[in-house]
Amino acid sequence: MRLYRPAVRLQHPNWTAIAIVNRPWTVHNLLVAGLPGAERAAIFAGVMGERPRDRAICLRAVDFSETSQVLHLLTREAGVVHLLAKGSKRPKSKTGGRIDLLAEGEVVYIPSRGEGLGTLVEFSERSGHAALRRRLADLNAALYMAETTAMLLAEGDPHANVFDLLSAALHRLDRGEAPTRAVLAYFQWRAMRYVGLLGTMDRCVACGGPLGAAGVYFSSREGGPLCRNCESARTEKIPLPRPALAGIAALAAMDRREQAALDETAAAAVIDLLAYHLTYLLGRSPRMLRYVRPDTRPPTPGPRPPR
Ligand SMILES: [Zn+2]
């Protein structure tokens, strides 16, 4: 006996498809003549209704062809998504025009199925962060935040808290209401806490004892500070300067909505410490680091443990 599945004919200006439908009316398969696999997958996802609408910030934009871009967007609900924006560079693009780094807005997209890129359907910019772009230090800090966010988050790993944190930091730079370095230090510290790469900094990570007044180190491998007694047994470590510890204590206090001040020196020490930690964990330092900290040599962590 042959089983016939109901088929539905789908009409679109550019293609015709036959969808094989299972009860209760889920599309089982899609036959589209003459289309490459990626487009067929995109249409299939479209037919299936997978067109998330989400808030997004552009972390990376690369020209793909004369008219198209590849975008790495941080979405609020789905984390980082990699999308092909077809024809986005055309003046009258359906997707809303060329999309710049740091652009923030609402996105509609078709997620990738498997390894490839998803497809951008629409991007409505809400803020291009024009105000911060007028000040080079703020622009460099914003680009550093976008780059390190992309380094910290794997594709498709949702962190709504990191999205909110980055959005708030960019708007804070726009308004110019806080010193650039303080905004950057707070963002870096909070983001690394959110993704679980940084623990508390007020005790020795090895023995749990107090840190003492001098001889304190930080170990990326251990994921925190080391007291004088514990540091000698560890090879991967950097001296943890007082301003960095004081800065992190101030950031933690701000997070608890207590009164605290973060001066320029402390903010810079926190940025340097977290850059070291990031470099150790991810195997390379952020490219924007030398623009954010031009007078400082990039940190060079010791060898990473074999995976
Ligand atoms: Zn210790």
Short description:
The protein has 9 helices and 11 strands.
Please name the defining characteristics of this protein.
binds zinc ion; three-stranded antiparallel β-sheet; five-stranded mixed β-barrel; 307 residues; single chain; OB fold (Dihydrolipoamide Acetyltransferase, E2P); elongated; alpha+beta; 3 domains
Task: Provide an overview of this structure.
This protein has 307 residues and is of the alpha+beta class. The chain folds into 3 domains: 7-48, no CATH class; 53-128, OB fold (Dihydrolipoamide Acetyltransferase, E2P); 138-197 and 241-292. The chain contains 9 helices and 11 strands. It has helices at 37-47, 130-133, 136-152, 160-175, 180-194, 228-231, 242-255, 264-282, 289-292; strands at 7-11, 16-22, 26-32, 53-63, 69-75, 79-85, 104-110, 118-127, 217-219, 224-226, 238-239. The strands form 3 sheets. It has a 5-stranded mixed beta barrel. Strands 1-2-3 form a 3-stranded antiparallel β-sheet, with helices on one face. A hairpin with a 4-residue loop joins β9 (217-219) and β10. α3 runs antiparallel to α4 (160-175) and α7 packs across α8 (264-282). The chain is elongated and about 75 Å long. The site of zinc ion (ZN) has 8 residues, from α6.
Q: N-to-C terminal Cα separation, in Å?
A: 55 Å
Shape: elongated
Output the strand order for the largest sheet: 4-5-6-8-7
The residue-averaged pLDDT reads 86
Q: Structural class, from secondary structure content? A: alpha+beta
From the alpha-carbon coordinates, what is the Rg to the nearest angstrom? 24 Å
What would you call the quaternary organization? single chain
Report the uncertain regions. 22-28
Q: Ligands in the structure?
A: zinc ion
Say how many strands there are. 11
- In total, how many domains does the architecture comprise? 3
Main sheet summary: 5 strands, mixed, barrel
The sequence of SSEs as H and E is EEEHEEEEEHHHHEEHEHHH
User: So how many helices?
Assistant: 9
